[in-house]
Write a structure and sequence with these properties.
Number of helices: 6
Shape: globular
Largest sheet: none
Order of helices and strands: HHHHHH
Helix content: 55-70%
Structural class: mainly alpha
């Protein structure tokens, strides 16, 4: 099945990804005080490329999952504890590129050898790949904790879920 670029949901996902990439670039480079930061460019390019690959694959193979994920992390009827937790996670995720820019470039506090940067980049790629596996295996893997009765929600026990019940949480441990 081909990717339908004329589909409004796919276009919305692409626009959202481009906006997020621009916001991430602004946070990284404003915090660093320069565009002369090769690691940030590599990170932006890699994360955008991997994100597009996953997003377009989901759009092609499971548009219902993409539609559900595009609803966002804060939804009506969501449990208060989940909203609080998601809000804290979002705040910390937004703080990370700012801290990286200030720490690694503006103040020059962290000096990592190239081999360690490469290992870190490989872990990021592996984390994105694991996210991709989750999206292809679990059609109910959304940002909001809820039973999706309208979509016939059922327990997933194939693929990585045959080994680990909370695969996304295990993946998150590797990302951090």
């Amino acid at each position: 099945m081909a990717i339908a670029f004329d589909d409004p949901l796919t276009r919305r996902m692409l626009v959202q990804m481009l906006i997020w990439t621009a916001v991430l670039a602004a946070m990284l480079f404003l915090a660093a005080g320069t565009f002369a930061w090769p690691q940030a460019w590599i990170f932006l390019f890699g994360s955008t490329l991997l994100g597009l690959a996953t997003g377009l694959t989901i759009a092609r193979r499971n548009p219902d999952l993409l539609r559900e994920r595009m609803r966002g992390p804060m939804q009506q009827g969501q449990k208060p504890w989940d909203k609080t937790l998601i809000g804290a996670i979002i705040a910390l995720c937004l703080l990370l590129p700012v801290i990286a820019g200030v720490d690694a470039v503006r103040l020059g506090l962290s000096h990592m050898p190239l081999w360690l940067e490469v290992i870190g980049a490989l872990f990021i790629c592996f984390g994105v790949y694991m996210f991709h596996v989750v999206m292809m295996t679990n059609t109910y893997a959304t940002a909001v904790v809820r039973v999706q009765r309208e979509r016939g929600h059922k327990v997933i026990s194939i693929g990585p879920y045959a080994l680990v019940r909370q695969y996304m949480y295990c993946k998150s441990l590797l990302d951090n």
